[in-house]
Amino acid sequence: MAASMVSSSPPKVGMVSLGCAKNLVDAEIMLGAAIKMGFHITPNAAEADIIVVNTCGFIDSAKQESIDAILTARQYPSQKLVVSGCLAQRHRDELAKELPEVDAFMVLDDVPRAGEIFTKLLSKSDSNHELEILKGRSRYIPDYDTPRFRLTPPHTAYVKIAEGCNHPCSFCVIPQMRGRHRSRTISSVRQEVQELVDAGVREINLISQDTTYFGMDQWAVKPGPKQPVDASRGPTLIDLLDELGQIEGQFWIRLLYTHPAHWSDDLIAAIARNPRVARYVDMPLQHIHSDMLVTMRRETSRQHIEDLVIRLRNGIPGLAIRTTFIVGFPGETEEHFESLLDFIESVRFERLGVFKYSQEDGSRAAKMDGQLPDKVKNARMRKAMTLQQRIAKELALSQVGSRLRVLPDSPLVARTEHDAPDVDCRVLLTEEVVTGDFVEVEVTGARVYDLIATPV
């Protein structure tokens, strides 16, 4: 089959994947589907028969990066060019007119059938690059037996437990791109995690648009933003963590992308009692001032957030909280911003990122009055990050002399359970260790965010 498409050798696929970990899982599934159809994966763009650009379309800078990657990928006329991901999902009709050099646009539901699409593309004459606009509504969700070609290091993996989002955040268009929230079954997730652990993976990163909403879409009565999580109504993240905790082996389970509206004391207790769940919570808060939380449509309040942070730290000893904030949102005054700075100063988050507001077409916030100039956004982001750098340095220095269990990503660079791949701090080792298995180290110094440590 492969020989008849192009030559006597198997056809090759190269890929550029941009954006978040959720997009990375889609890329892995597309490559897995391609392998199933007889394709080989190549890191060398020049030798690829098909180049896939898996785009991000979340904010303006990500869109521009995606467009640049598409234009860069079109270097070799004999190759087929495929564009997938959030940008293709949302703007495929417009992009088809502006980028005639693209041979196919893939929407989310096309991800598992990527191999079939690639095969069809190569069956066409190279001189006839007909554009395929592949229609579809976002209903797809992977299963445990979905073919994947993992792009992460062997010791770490992302497991997508749900797809889509039900939250109405005014700055976000993810629900428009990826559809309503839809969860996998607990048995499906457990089987995938079991297979990964059996294969030597030491870090399981659970991801979705909102991991705390896991299972709730299957309830007869859906939870509201102010209703407590009631495990008796149906499956929850609590049940999933308890199930994964029964898997034998040495590994971390890391929770990414949680939402403050759906935390409960039962969920906090489930993390505290499960030694395999990393003492790490990724919980984007976006702002703290009540005015901003209302206009952002965050379904929560300042009092709820402040109480939740206290409950999390009291209920999970040794916890590190990672959060993100948006500055420069429409209508954000100096008073609103100073309130955010005071909150950051008082709470002292272990991990924190700050983003400038991006005016996304199609979002509620894009039409709001009070849009702020980039100069104000940039100044506020710098001021907030300068504050966090001081806090981070103080927290890092406080760990000097302590012993930590770390997971090496390379012989001289590792991460603690408080550090997710690619986004958080590192542990710089003074001696080389074996990559991909847990090591105990003693912290001897710090460099703002990163620790310096010696293997014990």
Detail the topology: elements first, then pairings.
Layout: H1 2-5, E1 12-17, H2 21-36, E2 40-41, E3 50-55, H3 60-73, E4 80-85, H4 86-98, E5 104-105, H5 114-122, E6 132-133, E7 156-160, E8 162-163, H6 174-178, E9 182-183, H7 186-198, E10 203-207, H8 237-244, E11 252-255, H9 265-273, E12 277-282, H10 290-295, H11 302-315, E13 320-327, H12 334-347, E14 351-356, H13 374-397, E15 403-410, E16 413-415, E17 427-429, E18 439-447, E19 450-455
Parallel strand pairs: 1-2, 1-3, 3-4, 4-5, 5-6, 7-10, 10-11, 11-12, 12-13, 13-14, 17-19
Antiparallel strand pairs: 8-9, 15-16, 15-18, 16-17, 18-19
Walk me through the structure.
This protein has helices spanning 2-5, 21-36, 60-73, 86-98, 114-122, 174-178, 186-198, 237-244, 265-273, 290-295, 302-315, 334-347, 374-397; strands spanning 12-17, 40-41, 50-55, 80-85, 104-105, 132-133, 156-160, 162-163, 182-183, 203-207, 252-255, 277-282, 320-327, 351-356, 403-410, 413-415, 427-429, 439-447, 450-455. The chain has 456 residues and is of the alpha/beta class. Strands 2-1-3-4-5-6 form a six-stranded parallel sheet, with helices on both faces.
